[in-house]
Amino acid sequence: MPTDRASIMGIFDTEIQAASAIRGLRNTAYTLERVHSPIPSHEIAGAIEAPKSKVGWFTLAGGITGFFTGFLLAAFTSARWDMIVGGKPIVALVPFFIVGFEFTILFAVFGNVLGLISQARLPRFKQDEFYDPRFTGHKFGVLASCDASECKGLYRFFEAKGADIKTAEDVQGVPDQPPQGGPTP
Prior knowledge:
- With 185 residues, the chain is α+β, with helices and mostly antiparallel strands.
- The protein has helices at 15-26, 42-48, 55-81, 93-119, 151-160, 168-172, and strands at 5-12, 31-36, 140-147, 164-167.
- It starts with a strand and ends in a 13-residue tail after the last helix.
């Protein structure tokens, strides 16, 4: 079944080339889909202009929840036992803040892990069809999509940026067919 969108992966040798291609895509009608990098790269992160991570909000929510959970748990158990120690009130604030602090740390870690899992959309059971094992070693990949009629332009764009090209036909292993939109031999 033909689709009206086509994806092409540009494989680059350096992060500078990949970042340049990402910045170049911003001024075109092509859509940046995904970027693969073997290293954390500030150059590529700056080129993508990704929004700030929301994981910190999960951590904050977990910490606040943990503080009140710890404080209320200590107060509840103390009230249930109804044990007066040294003439002090049953619900003593200062010792219960320590329990609240410990629960703050614990629940903040839980919130952080849950936020990381949800924001990274883990687990991923389906592997990206354009993924290349070289992306874990020394290559950078930029996946872009466009209308099927603009495929040649995207192919030439990546060629002009110095990329090796990987198309859907390369991924699916169709023999004896030139890549769609690419130069014909």
